[in-house]
Design goal:
Elements lengths: L4 H8 L1 H13 L12 H15 L18 H10 L7 H26 L3 H13 L1 H6 L6 H22 L7 H13 L2 H17 L4 H15 L1 H28 L20 H10 L3 H7 L13 H13 L3 H16 L15 H18 L1 H26 L5 H6 L5 H15 L3 H21 L4 H30 L2 H11 L12 H11 L1
Helix pairs in contact: 1-2, 2-5, 2-6, 3-4, 4-5, 5-6, 5-8, 6-17, 6-22, 8-9, 8-10, 9-10, 9-11, 9-12, 10-11, 10-16, 16-17, 17-18, 18-21, 18-22, 20-22, 21-22, 23-24
Length: 523
């Protein structure tokens, strides 16, 4: 009997299969449309300045300010853009997309070799690929995805250093990866991984305090060699102004100290609760799946005192498999680390996502096997929501309904109506790509309904994951494309020029596309 193609790939070529899934998930869509946020052109402007001026150490960014942040992401953007001679949306987002693909591949290999159930590692990577936060970060012109990749793979190498070599020697990949992380976003790239690794070594209880201290010291110093080359060269160009801003950005803000050297406000100071809220939002739609699992839980009064329960819990934690213990320490350590500074953003927590996904995959398999109704109810819920959306899309494609007129009955907000109008335009005159994506969504939606009538719950889970993946394709390839294409260069330039007093040189912060729009406005 011939093995089905997907089953063969899963059994024989799982990493290849996952890489292909990641490529389909992001690469075709990162070049569609213009920059959609102010943050993207701000990062791309640094790469543009590198190509224009030839200054790859401390180029100017926008408003004649020097780019004081480490340039690894901008070096990659400029390098990818060099053959074509200019920075485009595709080349500026390419570092994030490639970092995402690399991260997912390493996560699958790392967990797949160390977890008894390979299926658990496979599902963990699927949860990462389809969750909102990681998917969004993989398609933006920012440094966060690249930083996450360097930190997570660096943590994997630190684990292997202890597990395989018992901290003897120092593998070259560790200072290389952590050094690249520092060159991506500063000292946090080495402080955070070593902070997590130090806690893990203490939890193992196999090494003396002196050994742990020496290990962290040697790894830290060696990881700073490459970054110090750039910091020294940048200081020679930027002088004390550069040094003061770097110290204020990386240390003063983290320790809640005064930062008079920084004239701008981050605007995202939040309490500790914010981290947990953003984690829940970042793992959508799987947060909803696990929320459904809370219903029907039988809570009983504990028979043991709290002290005894805590003692037994601690024993169970200490007796966990090494890779699970490492993952638990990593996710708790990262959450604690980013609870210290007042500045909090959802992307800061991304290095914890692979380790959280491992435990979520374990829980998902438990639910699928022992609480079968939850899997079916969630599949029914997601399929119902997607069905409503697909019906609305099909009615729009065939001209039966007018989404703008329907939405206009409930809101008069101009931006909302413009957004609906842009998407409707793409659907009323669908391209071949739009038709293909709609067909894929309908096909997978039908598969979910078909599997719900069967008794194999794990297939329902996989079908639900596939539906989430297809919805991401619909959002990126149809909805967001419509919004980005509809938001014309002239309209975007008018909005930017109204907000910033940009001259012709500084409008590079918006991109070459918007530069042309600015020239049109100037004429």
């Amino acid at each position: 009997m011939r093995t089905p193609t997907l089953q063969y790939l899963y059994l024989q070529k799982p990493v290849t299969m996952m890489v292909v899934i990641c490529i389909i998930s992001v690469l075709p869509w990162i070049g569609l449309g213009d920059f959609s946020t102010k943050g993207e052109p701000r990062e791309a402007a640094v790469a543009i300045s590198m190509l224009e001026t030839g200054n790859w150490v401390l180029p100017q960014s926008y408003a004649n300010e020097f780019a004081f942040k480490p340039p690894m992401a901008h070096w990659l953007m400029a390098a990818f853009s060099y053959p074509q001679g200019y920075v485009s949306e595709f080349t500026s987002r390419l570092p994030s997309a490639l970092a995402f693909i690399t991260l997912i591949g390493f996560v699958l290999v790392f967990f797949g070799k160390r977890i008894v159930k390979f299926q658990e590692a496979f599902i963990a990577t699927l949860l990462l690929v389809t969750c909102v936060e990681i998917h969004r970060a993989a398609m933006t012109t920012r440094v966060d995805m690249l930083l996450t990749t360097f930190i997570v793979i660096g943590l994997f190498q630190l684990y292997r250093w202890e597990d395989k070599l018992e901290l003897k020697g120092l593998p070259i990949f560790i200072p290389l990866l952590l050094g690249c992380a520092v060159l991506t976003k500063g000292p946090v790239g080495v402080v955070l991984p070593l902070f997590v690794f130090g806690i893990y070594l203490l939890m193992l209880g196999q090494y003396s305090y002196l050994t742990i201290f020496k290990t962290l010291l040697y790894a830290g110093i060696s990881s700073l060699f490459l970054p110090m080359l750039w910091y020294t060269a940048a200081w020679k160009q930027g002088g004390d102004e550069f040094l003061n801003v770097v110290l204020a950005e990386n240390f003063a803000r983290f320790l809640h100290l005064n930062t008079p050297e920084i004239s701008y406000d981050l605007g995202h100071e939040n309490g500790v609760w914010y981290n947990f809220m953003t984690l829940a939002a970042g793992f959508i739609p799987w947060t909803i799946f696990f929320f459904f699992s809370l219903f029907g839980l039988k809570l009983s009064k504990p028979e043991q005192p709290i002290k005894e329960i805590l003692k037994n819990t601690w024993k169970r934690i200490r007796s966990m498999e090494k890779v699970r213990l490492f993952s638990l320490v990593a996710l708790i350590g990262i959450l604690f680390f980013y609870s210290i500074p007042s500045s909090k953003r959802s992307v800061y927590l991304m290095p914890a996502y692979p380790f959280i996904a491992l435990f979520l995959a374990q829980y998902a398999l438990y639910i699928t096997e022992y609480r079968t109704k939850v899997t079916r109810v969630f599949a029914a819920f997601l399929a119902s929501v997607v069905s409503v959306v697909m019906i609305a899309i099909l009615l729009t494609v065939f001209g039966i309904i007018d989404p703008v007129g329907i939405v206009g009955q409930y809101t008069q907000n101009a931006s909302t109506l413009d957004m609906v109008r842009m998407v409707s335009k793409v659907l009323v005159h669908p391209s071949t790509l739009t038709i293909c994506i709609i067909f894929i969504n309908l096909l997978i939606l039908g598969t979910v309904y078909y599997q719900m009538f069967k008794k194999i719950n794990i297939k329902i889970l996989y079908a639900t994951i596939a539906l989430t993946f297809s919805v991401n394709l619909l959002i990126d390839g149809v909805i967001m494309r419509g919004i980005r294409e509809g938001d014309s260069c002239r309209v975007f330039a008018e909005r930017i020029l109204k907000e910033y007093p940009l001259n012709k040189k500084n409008v590079y912060a918006v991109s070459y596309t918007h530069l042309r729009a600015h020239e049109t406005l100037s004429d």
